[in-house]
Amino acid sequence: MSGEEFVPLSLTPMLIGVFAAVACALPGNFLLLRRQALIGDAISHVVLPGIVVAFLLTGMIAAWPMMLGAAGAALVAVVLIEAIRRLGRIEPGAAMGVVFTTMFAFGVLLLEQSDTSAVHLDVEHALYGNLESLIWLDATGWRSLLDPQALRYLPVELPRMALTLAGVCLFIALFWRALKISTFDEGFARTMGIRTNLLGLGLVITAAVAAVAAFDAVGSIIVIAMFICPAASARMMTNRLEAQIGWSVGFAVLAAVLGYVLAGYGPLWLGGQDAVSTAGMIATVSGGVLAVTAKCGPCRSRAGAPAGV
Amino acid sequence: MLLDALTLQLGYNATLVAIGAALLGTAAGITGTFLFLRKRALVSDAVSHATLPGVCIAFLLMALAGGDGRNLAGLLLGSAVSAGIGLWCMNWLTRNTRLAEDAAIGAVLSVFFGFGIVLLTVIQTLGVGRQAGLEGFLLGSTAGMLYSDALVIAAGGAVTLLLVLLTRRPMTLVAFDPEYAAARGLPVDRIDLLMMGLVMAVTVVGLKIVGLILIVALLIIPAVTARFWSERSDRVVLLAGLFGGIAAYIGAALSASAPNLPTGPIIVLVSFALFALSLLLAPNRGVLAAMLRHMRFQRRVHLRQGLLALAQGQAIYESLTLRLLRRAGLLRADGVATAKGRARAAKALRDERRWEVVRGDVTQEAAAALYDGLRDIETVLTVDQIQEIDRRIDGPREVLS
After folding, report:
1. H helix or E strand, kind and range, residue A76
2. pLDDT tens by residue, A46-91
């Protein structure tokens, strides 16, 4: 395919997909090891009421109020889960189930009650995003990447997602040692003077920021899939955290690119005319990667556990 | 209007939906309790999301075969098959790989749902059949519910309830102590499978009313709510069924009573309201009860410490202690102990002495372990034993004040 076609139509959605996937996969590694993998699932559900409330308050579809609303909702959810877990002495999984379903239901109700038919805001959009529509019409070819005039009209999601990814990387790089120690041995980390509670909250907030930013661009399906699948696949490949993170980034990029290509061109190869949902396809590809690694990854079984148990 | 809806006076469709929802809520509450007690509540999330590809494939097959494509029984069959495959994948991942259950849940949930959405877009672009309403399975849609749909739901709910009734004892045993159940010779794997099968059945039946994203709430919230009210598993199961049924019935009635109130979300919100009330007001495990317990304990500590201070002639400055002593008529407004106060103080001090003897005596170790500074010694030792102790310490002393 020529650059004239590829750059305006495919480059930006692909890059946004890759950035979103990596930004979710990185904290996903730690969440997976800490057995908090479903936090991503919970966050992506509670983001909906946050966005709807932000829309109702400001009356417009704008990026920043929505991001703030979503982040606020994520924070409310974390606080509520913790409060219900402690006050009611309920196991965390069930507390999470209570909170995220209720907040999601509240979001759907608000959507139905308010007049949002005029704007592009509905549950389907929240679920699978609109990655396909984030095109860069001002580009004419590869040379546009150096053309400041065309660069000004780049979809805003691209720099925002890149910024989010940079923030996530920065958090993990800054707290690398503390995160690693507290993930594997929380008691030891505490004796070393690491504030494990704060660090855990920081990790959840980082994950929430990544989820909210990715959600805006690509919908919540990718967010859940990318929090878990690349990290889980990477876990089958290695026993070292550094290598696991490397593998997970690789898998995330693979899923994003392959998913985009399959969704955009797969139906054409099969004789169809229209593309299918990119977000769904990226999640499907990441599941395929997980299936392969779970079947033949070198470190797939529990160390020391007998086969079949 | 709401009263009309609650008494089923709002027309055919509303009545159908309300009864169907109540049945579904009861079945979901009862089934969900076992899941909750087994600490696997979120498995239902994976199961429900895994139904989407099956719905789409069933629709495609039926549409391509020349049918309507929207036959509810066919769609539910498809969803059951794909939920079963999802369940099998999840079990396989947790058993044969190093992944923990939560990661397996998340992986199955997102991948199956993603694949389902790909299929949804395929259906949209193919333009076969009348696909309008297929998205209704995401969030439930009760507007066009038919009598046959209601029959499918009622039959599914009834079968689920019957199965639970037959297998409640082994399921309870496995939920509380799988190792013991295995040692007793129960097939734990198969009972777990049955539990998941029931969850799957409820999910599939509930797709039409509450949709696949929110059916999780019907499985989890009533069980958690019921747990507040009882410590006995059989009562928790019954209460969960009751709460689920009530929430679903009220929710369905509410949503029929005004426009723009989607049934599924309203049912979930009503369940949550019941949950919040229980969290606050439940007799033993509720927040209010815990606060009252704490306050009562605080008062006893203050009163006891105040009495000991009185007995030893120490001045009391703590305002709560002073207030409690005055209210009990043990202390006059000017801070001087009344006759009753002096008597109680002397008794408190003497009890403390008695406890000292008990705690210093190795043979009384069991009784001494009960000492917490508040317990009345009469509730621990017999009259004879107390007299024996009193002989060793020299009787009650007069309090100087």
Report:
1. helix A63-88
2. 888 888 888 888 877 677 788 888 888 988 998 899 899 988 888 8
Please check whether residue B70 is in contact with residue A206, taking contact to mean a CB–CB distance below 8 angstroms: no
Q: Tell me the residue type at A238.
A: T
Helix, strand or coil for residue A193? coil
- Structural domain span for residue B46: 2-282
What's the token pair of residue A36?
Answer: 């908090």
Q: Give residue-wise pLDDT tens across range B76-123.
A: 889 999 999 999 999 899 888 889 888 999 999 999 999 998 888 888
Residue numbers in A near B102 (CB within 8 A) = 35-38, 93
Would you state the structure tokens that stand for residue B369, as one six-digit string? 């372990």
Asked if B105 has any chain A CB less than 8 Å from its own CB, the reply is yes
List Cβ neighbours of A122 (8 Å cut-off, separation of 6 or more). A111, A116
The b/e string for B334-345 (b: 16+ C-beta within 10 A; e otherwise) is eeebeeebbebb
Same domain, residue pair B303 and B209: no
In a domain, B135, yes or no: yes
- Among residues B282, B299, B319, which one ends one of the domains? B282
What total of structural domains would you count in chain B? 2
The CA-CA-CA angle for residues B341, B347, B353, to 5°, reads: 140
Q: Distance from CA of residue A103 to its chain's centroid? A: 19
Contact A36 B102 (CB under 8 A): yes
C-alpha span between A40 and A20 (Å, rounded): 13
* CB-side neighbour CA atoms (13 Å) of B326: 12
pTM, to two decimals = 0.85
List the structure tokens of B119.
């299929």
The residue from B232, B250, B282 where one domain ends is B282
The span from the CA of B22 to the CA of B247, in Å, is: 8
Are the Cβ atoms of A225 and B216 closer than 8 angstroms? no
Classify residue A276: in a domain, yes or no: yes
